[in-house]
Structures are given as structure tokens and as C-alpha cells.
Amino acid sequence: MNDPIIRMGGAIARRAAEPVLETVGLSRSFTQGGQTIEVLRGVELAIAPGEIVALLGPSGSGKSTLLQAVGLLEGGFSGSIRIAGEEVSKLDAHGRTVARRDYLGFVYQFHHLLPDFNATENVVLPQLVQGKMPVAAETRAKGLLTALGLGHRLTHRPSQLSGGEQQRVAVARALANQPPLVLADEPTGNLDEHTSEVVLAEFLRLVRGEGSAALIATHNERLALKMDRVVRLHEGRLQ
């Protein structure tokens, strides 16, 4: 059997059975009103290349905090975080920026699209930041958007798109640079039930087609069961 293929910043590397994400002893605490609140308590998590994992837990369980840690968006954590084989938890600000650019794609509950740019341009921009040539970036953007059923909406701005369409653009943007790992925080939480199911199905189909791994935070048990594996966060620990 061939080794799994991991895409890193546009390059392709082969690694034998190495997790695309691995956390060891990941912890985070806050001091509030003279009390210490432990949000994450020694989280141990490994995600294989191409694996889609649902992160379940009620509001306040620490799901977003865990994603912020893995996404290198916030400091103050202890423990180890390895992404695509690289220890990233001790990187400086510039190193974290480069790691996010090369290794990660993000999808949030609210799409955070740039309002003055159309759908194609929103997906082109992160590719230009990574150094891709404009023509190749535009071809990639149009291909992803068309795969998500937005081939007829390529030149529409976010204000001209429905909520579900905006979130599809956000999904395409997250996958534009072929990240080895996609992080999603309640990606359909702002959509109605029917649209949530449709967008999630398209999201999962595209992630699998791209060969990326994903960690998707949700409180929806039914949607979580559509993924490859479910982990639960309870009182700061994974179960």
C-alpha cells in the first residue's frame, strides 16, 4: 500500500502513518475573580491524514478553545501541538502565521467573507498570499466553487448570496491552498436545518475529495455521525 499523501503549502510529501494533527497534554486555564478555570485539561488527540473527526460538546465545553489552540490563533496554552509532523506550539508570531498559511484551512460559523470582493476573488486571495500565480489561483477558485454548486454565482458579492451560498464560498476559501488540515467551528450553526444538512454534505464531500483531514466542532449529534469519528469534550477532557 502506498504511504498517505500530505499536501503542505502546495508541495506534496509522503509520510508513513504520521498523524496530520497530534496534541499531547494540551491544557489551557484562565483566572477569573480570583479563581482558576481549567478549560482544557491535558487533551490528547491524533487525526490521521484524510480523516474527518467531529468534536462534540455543549456550549462552554471548550470546543472553540481547542480549535483556537490547534489553529495557532491564541497563546497561553501548554502542551504539544504537531501539525504535518512539525511541532508548532512553540513558534513565534511569524512562525505561527506561516504555519497557518501552509497547513491550515478555517471555516467558522459566520463566513467572514470580504464584502467588497466577489465569490471568486474571496477564494483567490488566500492563494495569492501563499504565492500562487493569479491565473492558477483563479482557475482553482472557480473549480472549487463550481464543485460546490456555485458555478453560476462566481461574480456575486457576499451581499448577493444566500447564507448557505456564503458558507459554501467560505468552504472553498478554506480548501483553496490544499491544506492538510481543515478546522471548522460550528460551520453550519448559523443556517436553517435543511441548509445545514446540504452545506455539510457538500463540505464533507469536497474535503474527502481533496484528501484533507478535518476537525469539525459541533453540538449536533446527528450531523456528527456523518463524519468518520466522533470525540467528545467534557470538562476539558476528551472522551
UniProtKB/TrEMBL annotation:
One of its GO terms (biological process) is lipoprotein localization to outer membrane. Its EC number is 3.6.3.-. GO terms for cellular component: membrane protein complex; plasma membrane. InterPro entries: AAA+_ATPase (IPR003593), ABC_transporter-like_ATP-bd (IPR003439), ABC_transporter-like_CS (IPR017871), ABC_transpr_LolD-like (IPR015854), MacB-like_ATP-bd (IPR017911), P-loop_NTPase (IPR027417). Residues 21-239 form the ABC transporter domain. It comes from the Bacteria. The keyword Cell membrane applies. Keywords: ATP-binding, Cell inner membrane, Cell membrane, Hydrolase, Lipoprotein, Membrane, Nucleotide-binding, Transport. One of its GO terms (molecular function) is ATP hydrolysis activity. Belongs to the ABC transporter superfamily. Macrolide exporter (TC 3.A.1.122) family. This is Lipoprotein-releasing system ATP-binding protein. It comes from Sphingomonas pseudosanguinis.
